[in-house]
Amino acid sequence: MSVMGPAKCPISGAASSTGSCPASRSASRMGPRGCAFSGFSQSSAQALYGAPQGPDAPQILQARETKTLVHLLLPTAPPKEKTAALTLKTVDSLTPSPDSVLAAALGSPARRVLQRAETVGPTTGWRDGYLSSTHGFCPPDPSASPIALAMSPGRVWSDLCNRMPGLVGRGKIREAILQLPMVSGGPETIPDSALWAATVCLGILASVYRYEERNDGTEGIVVGSGNVDRNMFLNAAGDAEDEELETKGIPRNIAIPLRAVCTRMGRPLPHLTQYDVSIYNFKLRDQTSVYPYPQRAENMDLRWPVFNDRAEAMFLLCMAEVHGAFTSGVELVVRCQEAIMEKDNEALLEHLVALKMIVDQLGPIFHKISVNPSSGELFANPVEWGQRYAKFSAPLSNRVPALSGLALPLFQLLDAFMGRQKYDTFLGLEALHLRAWLPLNHRAFITAVEKFYPMPEYVKSTNDSRLHGVLEGLVESYMGERGFMGTHRYKVYGFLEVVAKTGRTETNGGAGSADSEGRPWEEVHKTLSDSMIERLEPYRKNITLKPHEMRGCFEECRFRGKVTAREWIDTDEDRNTAKVSIGINDSGVTFGPGDRLTIMPLNSLSEAGKVADALGLVERLDEALRLGNGSASDWKRFRTHLSGIEGRDVQITVRDVLRRGKLQPMTKEMVMKVHILLRGSSSTLLKLLSSEEWPVVASLGDILGVAKKEVDEVVWEAAFGNQDLDWLSKLIPVEVPRTYSISSFEKGLLPDVIELTVSRAEHRLSPLLTGGKEVIRAGISSGFLNPRPSFEQAEYGADEDVLIGISRPLNFALPISPAAPVVMFAGGSGIAPFRSFWRARISGGAIGRNILFLGIQSRKKFSYEDELRDAVAYDGLELHTAFSRDRKALIYDPSTRTLVEADREPRYLDTTILEQGSMVTDLVMSTKQGGLGGYLYICGSVSVYETVIAGITRAIYKHRTGSKSAADDIIATAFAERRFMLDIFMTPQAMSFKQPVISVSQLARHTGHRDGSKTWIGVHGSVYDITDFLPIHPGGSLIVQASAGLDASKTFDDLAHTSNPEVMSLLSKYFIGHLAPKPAFSAPELGSLYDGWYDYLRTCVESITTLSFEVKSICKDTHIWFSGGLLNMGGVRKFYQFQSRLIQNGFSTLFGSKLQELFVKLTFTLVDTRGRSEGVLPDVMGRISRAGSSVAAGKAKKEIAAVGELVCASTTAQTFEKGLMGYARGICEADVRFLEGVREEICHGMDAFELIQSMKSSTLEKQRLFKLAGFLMSILERIAVRLEGFYNEIGEMSMYHPEMESNPARARWAVVRRRVRDGSFFVLARDVELDGQHSESLDFDQQLEMLSQPYEIQQRHQRATKRQSISFESIMAQATRDFQPREQRIEDFPSPPKRLAEAHAARANINNTQQSSYDQLQDSKAANRISQFMQSNLKAIRRLSRITTDQINSFTPQHAIAAPIYGAPSGSIKQIQYSSPAFRQRAESSPSKPPTQPLPPLPTHEKSQSISHQPGLWPGVQHKKKASLPKIPTYHTSPVAASQASSATSTASPSPLRYDSLSRNPSSASSDSSQGGERRVPRGGGRDRSLARMTMTSQASDTVSEMRFTNHINMLPQERYAAGPSRESSVDRGRMGRVRQEDGEGGLSRKGSLRGLDRAMEALRGAR
Ligand SMILES: Cc1cc2nc3c(=O)[nH]c(=O)nc-3n(C[C@H](O)[C@H](O)[C@H](O)COP(=O)(O)OP(=O)(O)OC[C@H]3O[C@@H](n4cnc5c(N)ncnc54)[C@H](O)[C@@H]3O)c2cc1C
């Protein structure tokens, strides 16, 4: 509709008769950015969705407005029925009400708001908020305000923002801010047109100042006085005490103008908003790239990034993009309101469909944020985001709005438009709060849409099924599980899992929710799903399930359709594949290319009939069922669902259950139900139950038919003869829907038909039921949609109604650009979605190539031949075929555009792909790699996928790369760039139980964190090796790796993967075995120990995987270490925070309460099983505490503190550039190696459980328990030794290696200067003399190394490691103290913040080095468990220990009850006082190395028999006297220890214990002055949620220095694991009755049965 004038914008096509730029709104020829014409006029987006275009839009709208009121309100004469009954009293009702007249006279409220905004906005710098018909919520020109700012004195702010990433990288941003001149924010300096930009700049500067203050190198470990430079920034610009919270502490030169500009913007308190940093903070890369809209993430950069990393950019740009996509949405919403005012249903329909098209895009836009490291610019690293941007984005105070997506105007508008009624959930309340802070235009617009002519109400009142359907589609598209909300939720889940595990303490959405489980990402998932339900409620009443639980269920099928045709598409006489048409006339269903249909299939009449016949239900088919509780609740939900769709109250009848229930194949659960009902009297069922593969190919009708002949009539009657049919709905569950790719493409507004390409699945009926005869059965759904032609009429009723739904896969859509080449690989019916692709591309005039590779068995099965030939002839398609069982080939001839018949060897698709290898390679390679950047799609079964990938890999290898792995990388890049997409047709395969059994420890060892190692995961009892799957996982590899080595069932369920057939079928390709279940221990103590140990292993594995995320980014990401060729403080800061966190918290989840829990329980078990408490136990906890406060640990901390000092001293840092990075790499490697060692130890313990369980049953329970506990205890001790070794190792490392640096002299000088400054230079000089070292003979570094070591460290290598032991009484007394409640303990754990802003602010205050909230909760739960354990074993502890009555009495049941409340254990958290010299000496000894010798083996079964219950014995003490005991294996922590071990003779009695509690930070406990007076800086109000940790000083003497084990146990035989436990049928074969003689298909061909079946089928044919 654009007017063709003399001047026309070459980009947008918009024209202006005046010759002025259509986007500038002034009389200037120049566009807002100086171009002659603008590409911003959005013509393509407007055209796409039917909103008025460019400069003509106002005229068009005005034309609409000129309608007369009569035209609007009284267009037709009232019908007679309406007038007839009216009297004088009532006749006035014929005329419109005053309200309506006024409303019509004024126009639609939304239009009024829009027009006002458009009129006033351009003259006031849009300070009321950007809002226009042509640009929606986006600024008409994103550069206009920044240009205005740059032309004002405020330019100083934007100039500084332009330098920001570089300055942040140097650690110099605060200095730069302080140097800014004071520029006022008043109108005399900052014009209105520059206000937005000024607000954004100043808001960012204030926030970054705060961020820097909190992350300046003092947030982690600080030793001594620290860097004097740190304080130079504090209050440098005046303390601003007079200021309010938002600008407190922020330099006045930005605080004052910030307040001024915010006030002018109508913000009562100064703050930065989410839309400031996203929608109003981008610049376009290519302004001519306007299709379908310019603001695409790939076409934008942040104007003022803070860190300049892609995680920051992707989040913000995607938010900008959703608003860019929505530019015409604002106009469409207004038009909907106008259509409702005018009661114009056709117009409303048109606008709603257009709006749905836009909303459909929101999910895929959000999905662009990729967690896949090889996805180039789309990669948003969660670790980076969590530790940097998430911290930066904290609000200026906790009373101003948080930076949250809820504040974005688009979502507020959609909520209002879709009639959201409830805002009661946490996020609901937050949304309302944030709405109150929106710019006034936005608030007015949203209110106009919400309060006037509400769309959902109107649609409901119309009875127009098309409108209902489109609204339903819109609901799903915005708030549904597969729509925007669902996509957002899943993205957040995966992202936050990584973020939360890598040390972030809080989460955005999780704030305010009860974080009871301690897994914040799961909490966020719940919070988001609550708010989804709240939104859905007006549409779906009584929602009882979480949204993800509805995936893969009938709930997804919300429309009705009819099978209207089944057609041949090839020459196969069996019609194995058919085109099936589903009529959807007037349903309002819309779909696009790549969309899928979900359908609830109906059982064939014969299958339903068999069941009816066997159960005697033929006469009762129309009887309504009383749906009770239990499994019938599915049917109840189904009834509600059906009633909702049909708009009336519907009953579930017997017929419904038989036609819509799951009758085939038989799961073990279903067979078991029948078996139990028949009291085990059917021998065939017994045989079936021992099957090795489940489910069994058979139907319920089959097994009932056979069983009926075997079972006594009385039993049968008792099972099924009941008048009450309650059992029926419990026996037969509701069928699950099937998915089909849509094969049709419709250009019109609403399609009438959906076409599918369905290939019939066929299975061989279980031979147990056929007496060995081969009987083939069709799959339920494919058999229903495409039955064998001869069955069609007989088996299914005509025109049967089916429930259907539409879903849009996130990863299977045509490229936006019509010029992009598309390559489709199809196997068999995999051609289904591609038919819609080529049709859409050809009819849309796409200029890019369309290439189809099609693999089928034979010429006979070549489908859609005519259509394909036409498409080829039209030059719309290049077709390459592969027939696997036919020599009659079809070859594509590009010159004649025909398919030529030829004789050729049969082949698979990979051969054809290889033949076209060069072309395929170019298409797979990205444009950056010099390729064509084609969009590739694979569709078909899993084996088709494998063949295609094999072909492509070979092609790339042949044509481009030197290795297969390089070829794999090219493919992985295509996947990561979202150019490679899959549509895998699956039918879940039967699971064989013959596969190997994989132990939990084997699984745990495969975390894949090392390059080239394997990644395994466990899901619902199966183990998968997903190493090869990682690069192609659509959600990115990090997310999957977060579950590596673990049982990921819960995550799978949460993400609805388990109910996603596509995921499960793809996964089946990677299946490697069954996960060993928990052994069935007869002693509950064993079971409980197992659970504790398993949990500990899980924690360790999680620690390894998530630690490796950070380690990888520290060690491999050059971006974090360098920016602009200079050392980036981002890297230094990150490493400092990361390592501080580890050391300060001492790997808290592994060495905190969880370990103590195991230790206490094992101690108790050992003593309890012996019945006495004499002897000593290893002082595991004491050893761990001492390791954390050892000299080595102190030295390591000092070094890390020195790294912190460099955070704000970039010049010095650059002097040590190489040393610093080398140090980071070395220490990170040590971290990982250490955790690997710990995991290995725990895995040994895990294996011991299985071994113990397999011991001869004659072994006494107590004996087993004792042996196991002893073994596990030895492992705990080894773990403690490893910790000591770890500290020793990292204590040796240093970043000062001047010889490595590019300028060694300067580096040396920097060291000396530092030493001189902190005074250590002189101290060290004295030490040199004392030691009599010849310093001249050593080089400078050696001197430093030597000198910097305290005397004790030099000595410690000469001392032996001594076994540190402790008595039972001491351990229990300590545990009693540690886990007794403290008064007012709840106050220690502030309740979770109530508001989002509070949460964000709290998060930013907590420094990065504190324990994550996840870790804290893990700890507190463990503390809770210990407390309960102590309580429940109180009597035994009393009996066994010699704890004084006073001590033991102090532990009461109340303690146990009180302890769980946020779990902080024990009395006051005191500073430990290691005062005695004896203690110090011990603490500083132990130069432990990780244990290297193999673990002491568990006993062989035989030997174990001979071990008597030794009274009062603990390893290493009494058994020395027992000559009869087997030889005790030992391991030594050092050679000296070994020598001393031989001299160890007796156990010294423990020295009196000091029951000092230790704070969470073991190092903080030490007041050892030799460590430079280490201090923890209580910055940012960090909550001390510390758990008191047990610390014990043990006896002073030389107790045994070797580890001894009472139980001589041989190593675990390896074969066990390979073979796995034999899985015998649980069915007692001996009880099997005689199988009766059967004939045919399980005896069903008997005449009598057939007659009954005919009758049943006949009855079923009857109408509902
Ligand atoms: C994304 C996708 C697209 C597909 N597109 C097509 C297509 O265009 N054309 C085509 O012919 N086939 C397609 N399929 C396969 C189709 O969904 C069915 O799996 C197939 O028709 C066999 O179903 P059936 O009922 O006949 O098999 P049955 O043998 O009756 O089913 C076997 C077992 O698998 C389970 N099962 C089968 N399918 C599903 C499912 N979708 N969800 C959950 N459980 C299931 C059944 O409950 C049963 O336990 C597609 C599958 C997927 C996942």
From TrEMBL:
<dbReference type="InterPro" id="IPR001709">
    <property type="entry name" value="Flavoprot_Pyr_Nucl_cyt_Rdtase"/>
</dbReference>
<dbReference type="Pfam" id="PF00175">
    <property type="entry name" value="NAD_binding_1"/>
</dbReference>
<dbReference type="InterPro" id="IPR001433">
    <property type="entry name" value="OxRdtase_FAD/NAD-bd"/>
</dbReference>
<keyword id="KW-0349">Heme</keyword>
<keyword id="KW-0285">Flavoprotein</keyword>
<dbReference type="InterPro" id="IPR001199">
    <property type="entry name" value="Cyt_B5-like_heme/steroid-bd"/>
</dbReference>
<dbReference type="GO" id="GO:0050660">
    <property type="term" value="F:flavin adenine dinucleotide binding"/>
</dbReference>
<feature type="compositionally biased region" description="Basic and acidic residues">
    <location>
        <begin position="1625"/>
        <end position="1639"/>
    </location>
</feature>
<feature type="compositionally biased region" description="Low complexity">
    <location>
        <begin position="1533"/>
        <end position="1572"/>
    </location>
</feature>
<comment type="similarity">
    <text>Belongs to the indoleamine 2,3-dioxygenase family.</text>
</comment>
<dbReference type="InterPro" id="IPR023173">
    <property type="entry name" value="NADPH_Cyt_P450_Rdtase_alpha"/>
</dbReference>
<dbReference type="InterPro" id="IPR039261">
    <property type="entry name" value="FNR_nucleotide-bd"/>
</dbReference>
<protein>
    <recommendedName>
        <fullName>NADPH--hemoprotein reductase</fullName>
        <ecNumber>1.6.2.4</ecNumber>
    </recommendedName>
</protein>
<dbReference type="InterPro" id="IPR037217">
    <property type="entry name" value="Trp/Indoleamine_2_3_dOase-like"/>
</dbReference>
<dbReference type="Pfam" id="PF00173">
    <property type="entry name" value="Cyt-b5"/>
</dbReference>
<feature type="region of interest" description="Disordered">
    <location>
        <begin position="1476"/>
        <end position="1664"/>
    </location>
</feature>
<dbReference type="GO" id="GO:0003958">
    <property type="term" value="F:NADPH-hemoprotein reductase activity"/>
</dbReference>
<keyword id="KW-0274">FAD</keyword>
<dbReference type="GO" id="GO:0020037">
    <property type="term" value="F:heme binding"/>
</dbReference>
<feature type="compositionally biased region" description="Pro residues">
    <location>
        <begin position="1488"/>
        <end position="1499"/>
    </location>
</feature>
<dbReference type="GO" id="GO:0046872">
    <property type="term" value="F:metal ion binding"/>
</dbReference>
<feature type="domain" description="Cytochrome b5 heme-binding">
    <location>
        <begin position="995"/>
        <end position="1076"/>
    </location>
</feature>
<feature type="compositionally biased region" description="Polar residues">
    <location>
        <begin position="1591"/>
        <end position="1600"/>
    </location>
</feature>
<keyword id="KW-0408">Iron</keyword>
<dbReference type="GO" id="GO:0016702">
    <property type="term" value="F:oxidoreductase activity, acting on single donors with incorporation of molecular oxygen, incorporation of two atoms of oxygen"/>
</dbReference>
<dbReference type="InterPro" id="IPR017938">
    <property type="entry name" value="Riboflavin_synthase-like_b-brl"/>
</dbReference>
<dbReference type="GO" id="GO:0010181">
    <property type="term" value="F:FMN binding"/>
</dbReference>
<dbReference type="InterPro" id="IPR036400">
    <property type="entry name" value="Cyt_B5-like_heme/steroid_sf"/>
</dbReference>
<dbReference type="InterPro" id="IPR018506">
    <property type="entry name" value="Cyt_B5_heme-BS"/>
</dbReference>
<keyword id="KW-0479">Metal-binding</keyword>
<dbReference type="InterPro" id="IPR000898">
    <property type="entry name" value="Indolamine_dOase"/>
</dbReference>
<feature type="compositionally biased region" description="Polar residues">
    <location>
        <begin position="14"/>
        <end position="27"/>
    </location>
</feature>
<feature type="region of interest" description="Disordered">
    <location>
        <begin position="1"/>
        <end position="28"/>
    </location>
</feature>
<dbReference type="GO" id="GO:0019441">
    <property type="term" value="P:L-tryptophan catabolic process to kynurenine"/>
</dbReference>
<dbReference type="GO" id="GO:0005829">
    <property type="term" value="C:cytosol"/>
</dbReference>
<dbReference type="Pfam" id="PF01231">
    <property type="entry name" value="IDO"/>
</dbReference>
<feature type="compositionally biased region" description="Basic and acidic residues">
    <location>
        <begin position="1573"/>
        <end position="1587"/>
    </location>
</feature>
